Fold each of these.
Amino acid sequence: MYNVDEVIMEEAQARGAICVDILHKKDSEMALGQYWHEGVSMHPSDEGMEMIADAFFSVLKQ
């Protein structure tokens, strides 16, 4: 986890807000090599989008 992510999580907790961790854990969760533009390839792949949806849904179910 990056330092800025820790600050965001701490602030969310201090304010009683929900913060969902959607950082990519695996390369397969990013569109690496699927696009010529490196910045676009850093966006979520289909697997990454599913991981994000699952993370949000699990928080909403609570």
Amino acid sequence: MTYTIRFGTDGWRATIAEDYTFDNVRRCAQGFASYLLQHGKQGAWVVIGYDKRFQSENFALAAAEVLAGNGLCVYLTDKATPTPVIAFSVTDKKAVGAVNITASHNPPADNGFKVRNETGGAIDPQGLVEIESLIPQSAEQVTHLAAKEAEAQGLLQYFDPAPRYIEHIQRLIDLTPIRNAGLKIVVDSMWGNGAGWFTQLLSGGKTQIIEIHNERNPIFPEMKRPEPIPPNINVGLKKTVELGADVLLITDGDADRVGVGSEKGEFVNQLQVYALLAYYLLEVRGERGPIVKTLSTTGMLEKLGKLYNVPVYETGVGFKYVAPKMTETNALIGGEESGGFAFRGNVPERDGILAGLYILDMMVRLNRKPSELIDLLYSKIGAHYYDRVDRSFSGDRRSREQRILDAKPQTIGGLKVTGLNTMDGFKFGLEDGGWMLIRFSGTEPMMRVYCETTHKERVQAILQDGLRIAGLE
């Protein structure tokens, strides 16, 4: 039986050697090639990059051979490259899109296949459905051209994307004050593509960068997966305290997400980071523009929107929704609960490197450490508390969805339910302005229960009620 390739929240992901095979990667590449050709892109250039997972460079080469075989031209990165650098290269090279071989934050056994459009951002859901429909049923229906022949014909070029991306970053932010600030920064690149980037960008001054997990190791020791949340970052948090560092910056496996640890060794959660970044752009830099957020991220953004008189747009989960909305509205910032943030002036793609630099710039400009930045933020809009529980599930998804709809809870965690949003999952509004969301993962057989509230003591009760409503307790 033919394996069916489906694009989830952010591309296709599967287990290496089980479903993620060279044949299936070639089938996926053929679908993308056919999509580009149907949209009149014959002879156009496409960027291909990859991460440090097992065989990623060879899967990327296989995809390049398929695109070349279909008459498209390929810029292939000469080394493992962060997702935001690949995205920037699309616009810099005036390419029509990109293929990125990465499973981002997934467990070690997985790999993935992401596609991007001419903006460097995610292709919208309708485009993804079209690509899926063009994926052939078997590898025998794939057209490809051997790499050496493609290179000889000028259809394949290797390139180093770093210099041009660094030039671009230096136009967005003055790095000199950070270099000279004398900060001690621990960087955890989670064995992934972020290794070396902060050192390269910030060396040469008084600031000290200490990197951990900065080699290639596809089994990701000392963490369950390269996702910048506890417990995966616990080693980095401990190291921050041991070294007396000012901040911990974490990038996930492909460096499109950022995580932050305080000088106290405490995790600054993704919702807090998003609110800090928005506050930095609006207050510290004095910029104005719309904010785009997924429904699973913080209500603090609505409060900041009111404070600074800027609109806030809410989308479904995934940058396939965020990126098009950012482009449509010329948004100042766009982001999601997972720790991925995109910025105006850059491409509409998550950039963990630029986000980390903005956090450092905020620290330097305000002369505050991360815990002090949180205090400052809360002094403006009040304290907010967040947590999330992930649970694997089996069985029929539709019956679980119906169970959630049928629950009709009057209260959750002792707070009155004020409404239900089913745009993407099941988001229950709560009387304090907080929320509880139950959502199926778009890339794994996983259900997630999230919450945000102004009542710290109610967080766990809200999550437990969510698990019961979802039938997971």
Amino acid sequence: MTIKVGDRVPDATLTEFIETETAGCTLGPNAFQVADLVKGKKILMFALPGAFTPTCSAKHVPGYVDHIDAIKAKGVDEVWCVAVNDAFVMGAWGREQKVAGKVRMLADGSAVWTKALGLELDLTARGMGVRSNRYAAYIVDGVVQVLHNEGPGKFEVSDAASMLKAI
């Protein structure tokens, strides 16, 4: 079953590559519970099939980086990029995309959260395994307020500009 507006997001563990060691976070991959991350926050998250892929690298991530000030002006606490990749890949991609302080690059390495959301995309026939569909969601205190799920091969409704209009 696919998550819909009004549903609470399921809990799962996502990992993030931390560049600078701080109290409570070590250098390298750190695990975070979705339930803890969304509690009391407004999250604008977008998910995509994979790090370093053409549309994701040329349009999807850069759009959110470019619009970060307008997104924050809407009261959004955090912007997440989620992909079915490991934290090392997401960290490297984040450095390449210059997302520091703007977008959290969260890894769902085994697609556990993506499957719980019902938003997985089976690209096994193309040699990529199970990935995430391309979508964006606005989540307030763990509840989906807006969900823009893209059709196969599309990039029309999950971009930053479309989400800014929707929230």
Amino acid sequence: MSKYLTIDPTDLAEAFRALGNPQRLRLFLKLAACCRTGDVCCDVDSERRCVGEIGDDLGVSASTVSHHLKELRQAGLIHMERQGRNIQCWVEPATMRKLASFFSHDEKGTES
């Protein structure tokens, strides 16, 4: 049986849809910078980023950054948590493992 039959296509489609926007992809890549292929992302506590600093160098308004982060969260790609006046974001490790698993196997379900 193909490994692809065990992955929920709806979850993957949501992730791919969210990452299909260039600005969202840039935001996600900033958050996922510590993740390595075939490895779990780094410690969540050390890789939390404040919403206010994530979009600093992208040249978009704070409301646009918030909208894109909401889309990434709804797709299950990131977590967001309020800490006092700040909102912290980090990559969802389980989703990263699911995406890595999808891309690391060929159509026969074996590792490449």
